[in-house]
Design brief:
Blueprint lengths: L4 E8 L5 E9 L18 H11 L9 H18 L11 H49 L6 H19 L8 H38 L16 E5 L24 E3 L21 H5 L3 E7 L7 E6 L7 E7 L2 E4 L13 E8 L10 E10 L2 E12 L3 E2 L6 E8 L5 H13 L3 E6 L9 E10 L2 E10 L9 H4 L5 E4 L20 E3 L11 E5 L7 H10 L6 E4 L12 E4 L7 E6 H13 L6 E2 L7 E2 H6 L1 H25 L7 E5 L17 E3 L2 E5 L5 E2 L2 E2 H9 L6 E5 L2 H4 L5 H4 E5 L6 H4 L2 H10 L7
Helix pairs in contact: 2-3, 3-4, 4-5, 10-12
């Protein structure tokens, strides 16, 4: 509650008569709070505020990233001071509390501005370093004695990439002027490399003609065609358009550069089958899902036969089509059947799966021109499948999925629908469907450049669970909504039979070093998530390697029972983690305040009183053991793995029974929906008509700026589950494409470090 002191000011007219008395709100500075003895001093509150406002720290001009870091530290120190809840002595006057808030908001705004500038400058510096590194490599290429065409082509590509990196530096960056100067310098070097490449090409052609006249065999020293007019290229710069800018870097591929193809897993023609299965292009929507590859064929090659081949047997992984006047026709990629001859060949490529333990997801396509049985030209392009990405609990929601199970949860479903739809999202009610909607599927997304823009498409990964015949995941398959499976169901022992359900597979929000989040899963001893799923995640590279979390002490052994993430008003995500120790302390607080007879777990099978719970020393010691042996080590691990600071970790009061079930409703097992937090009602002790545990939770998550909705989920509590288990969400992907969120160095490092089975 904000307090304001109102100061009386008399309004007097020119002849001295009293006109009115008004009350003016006056705040007080945190840095110099008025003590009781100061309130009667000769200095007025208005003068005090004016003095304090003049001394407030303002964002100063900086000239380097290091100065930005220093300024951030200074403002953060100040923010820590003004964010502390003032004592009653400091806010004796009600108006003082209001000024505490003003101080905090102004300092927070400064802090956010500096953080935004740091992010901008860090990205600019990263682009600068990449440009310098590529320029250095280009210079080394130019120093090679008797450099050939391929060498100069590589040098030219490096200069182009270096210039492109410099162009990524924002106009308002601290190093913009340096980048412009360097760009002009590099353009001069690019012209030299281009000139030397042409000279080397002419020299090679002359040598080839001499060798042909002498009936000797000559092999091209370059990886792709020197023949003018025979060029194969795709959307290597990932802008959704094919043009001359795509001709460079065709033989390279990484997560951050090179042509992309889509795993065409949606259903554009409504036949209830993913489009990749039918070997057809089903109209304009399906055409938009193809990666286009052009082969420019000059007049002197138009009477040649053109074949398409791949570096390995890729027929199990991709489909290729040729655009003709009769529509899109399937293409043989074994190099045995020629394309339909024409001046400009347009190919469309789709993947038949994502990268996994058996396929790294990248194919080299080669176009070969032959005349009279003799190869006269060839050109190649590397093309890779887009990765599948998981959506974090903090991403915007399009749809929330929940099953209506009859009378038992009708009120719960109605409340969910009311909350979700007021946010602009849609509530998808599955009548009579599975209770645990979270376990049956993981709804992620893909990003693909198409038709001049980046297209985001949701794709659902169906869970593989023995004995389950849930078709809800498959029912989501439609135009622009993909569906796929990985691996087969496996038989597990009774204790671990839920290990492969997707309440046991989650992802963080964006974190330092993991711009699209990092996946984590539960593991009990040697049994964790299905190894085929783990290898699949590793093969996607971006959100891995996944982190395993010890869930051996839980009944269901799902990781969503232990931690979840929510957004914060500071920009950094907050991690909620269950804390048995905090649960015990909550009971002790109630007892110390004289509420030992208050009921907890009201209406549940575990209902008791605060005093009775504290007398159950076995239960208390069990929970303190869990904190000491399980949760405290986990917190330290997650701080390292997720790069979390202490102020991002919120320990939520919880208690657990001996068999590993949540002894009162688990508030961590919650769902964020567009500014609303759906959380289990903890049915804690009622003190003066208010739930003590609810109020404790509200204070803990105050920095999240979420509207808290405590849900009556007794139906699920009786089945040993909570709100996150009962629901699933279709969330929007990030606006920024994944390839712009990653540096080449990071993506390549992760690619090389993964030891996915079959690719060592």
């Amino acid at each position: 509650m904000c307090w304001i002191r109102y100061v009386k000011i008399a309004l007097v007219n020119t002849i001295g008569a009293l006109v009115a008395i008004i009350w003016v709100p006056v705040p007080q500075a945190v840095a110099q709070p008025l003590l009781p003895e100061q309130t009667n001093s000769a200095v007025s509150p208005l003068e005090t505020i004016k003095s304090v406002n003049n001394s407030l720290k303002t964002t100063k001009k900086v000239n380097s990233l290091s100065e930005l870091y220093q300024l951030r530290d200074e403002i953060k120190t100040e923010l820590n001071k003004v964010s502390q809840r003032p004592s009653l002595q400091e806010v004796e006057e009600p108006w003082q509390y209001q000024f505490y808030l003003q101080q905090y908001e102004k300092t927070l705004k400064n802090f956010r501005n500096v953080e935004a500038n740091i992010i901008r400058e860090e990205k600019a510096l990263q682009s600068w370093k990449q440009a310098i590194a590529k320029a250095k490599k280009a210079v080394e290429k130019g120093k090679i004695t008797q450099a050939n065409y391929q060498t100069w082509q590589e040098a030219e590509n490096l200069w182009l990439e270096a210039i492109s990196n410099l162009r990524e530096i924002p106009q308002n960056s601290l190093i913009t002027d340096k980048a412009i100067e360097k760009m002009i310098e590099y353009q001069g070097y690019l012209a030299v490399a281009s000139y030397e490449k042409v000279i080397a090409a002419r020299r090679w052609v002359e040598n080839t003609e001499d060798d042909t006249n002498n009936n000797t065999t000559n092999y091209s020293p370059i990886a792709y065609s020197l023949s003018p007019g025979f060029t194969m290229y795709g959307d290597t710069n990932r802008d959704g358009e094919l043009d001359k800018a795509d001709i460079s870097s065709r033989e390279k591929w990484s997560l951050s550069e090179g042509a992309l193809m889509l795993f065409n897993s949606d259903d554009d023609n409504g036949d209830r089958r993913p489009d990749w299965r039918d070997r057809e292009v089903n109209g304009e929507s399906d055409e938009a899902d193809l990666a286009l590859v052009n082969i420019q064929v000059a007049e002197n090659y138009q009477d040649a036969q053109i074949y398409i081949a791949t570096d390995t047997d890729a027929s199990d992984y991709i489909n290729v089509f040729q655009k003709t006047e009769y529509g899109w026709q399937p293409v043989d990629i074994s190099g045995n059947e020629a394309l339909i001859s024409r001046e400009k060949v347009v190919l469309g490529v789709e993947a038949k799966q994502f990268a996994d333990r058996n396929w790294k997801g990248v194919v080299k396509l080669t176009a070969i021109a032959e005349k009279n049985g003799r190869k006269i030209a060839s050109d190649s392009i590397q093309i890779g499948v887009v990765p599948w990405l998981m959506s974090p609990n903090t991403a915007p929601v399009k749809e929330l999925h929940v099953s209506e199970r009859g009378f038992g949860n009708q009120e719960f479903v109605a409340k969910i629908k009311q909350i979700v739809e007021k946010t602009g999202a849609k509530a998808q009610i599955n009548s009579g469907g599975t209770t645990w909607m979270q376990d049956t599927k993981e709804i992620g997304y893909v990003q693909f450049p198409s038709q001049g823009k980046t297209h985001n498409m949701n794709v659902v990964l169906k869970a593989n669970r023995p004995g389950e015949n849930d078709q809800y995941a498959r029912s989501l398959l439609k135009e622009d909504f993909g569906w796929f499976e990985v691996g087969k169901p496996r038989q597990l022992d009774p204790l671990n039979r839920w290990a492969d359900a997707y309440g046991n597979l989650e992802v963080t929000p964006p974190l330092p070093g993991y711009e699209l989040g990092r996946i984590y899963y539960g593991k009990a001893g040697e049994v964790g998530m299905n190894p085929e799923i783990v290898d699949f995640i590793k093969a996607q590279k971006i959100q891995g390697p996944p982190v395993d979390i010890d869930t051996s002490w839980l009944m269901i052994r799902h990781v969503d029972e232990i931690i979840t993430f929510i957004p914060s008003k500071f920009g950094k995500p907050l991690m909620l983690i269950v804390s048995p120790e905090a649960g015990v302390k909550l009971l002790q607080e109630l007892s110390q305040q004289g509420y030992g007879q208050a009921a907890i777990n009201r209406g549940l099978s575990t209902q008791t009183t605060v005093r009775a719970a504290l007398k159950n020393q076995k239960l208390i010691q069990h929970n303190l053991y869990l904190q000491r042996e399980k949760l405290d080590p986990l917190i330290e691990k997650l701080k390292r793995e997720f790069n979390l600071s202490d102020d991002q970790i919120i320990q939520v009061p919880a208690m657990f029974g001996y068999s590993g079930y949540s002894w009162w409703p688990n508030m961590v097992n919650s769902v964020v929906v567009n500014g609303e937090l759906l959380v289990s009602n903890p049915v804690g002790a009622l003190i003066n008509g208010r739930d003590y545990t609810q109020e404790k939770f509200r204070r803990l998550v105050a920095d999240a700026s979420l509207n808290i909705n405590f849900m009556d989920d007794k139906y699920y509590q009786n089945l040993r589950g909570s709100i996150h288990d009962a629901t699933n969400t279709t969330r929007l992907g990030k606006n920024n494409p994944f390839w712009k969120s990653l540096s080449e160095d990071i993506s390549e490092l992760r690619f090389q470090n993964y030891e996915v089975r079959g690719q060592r």
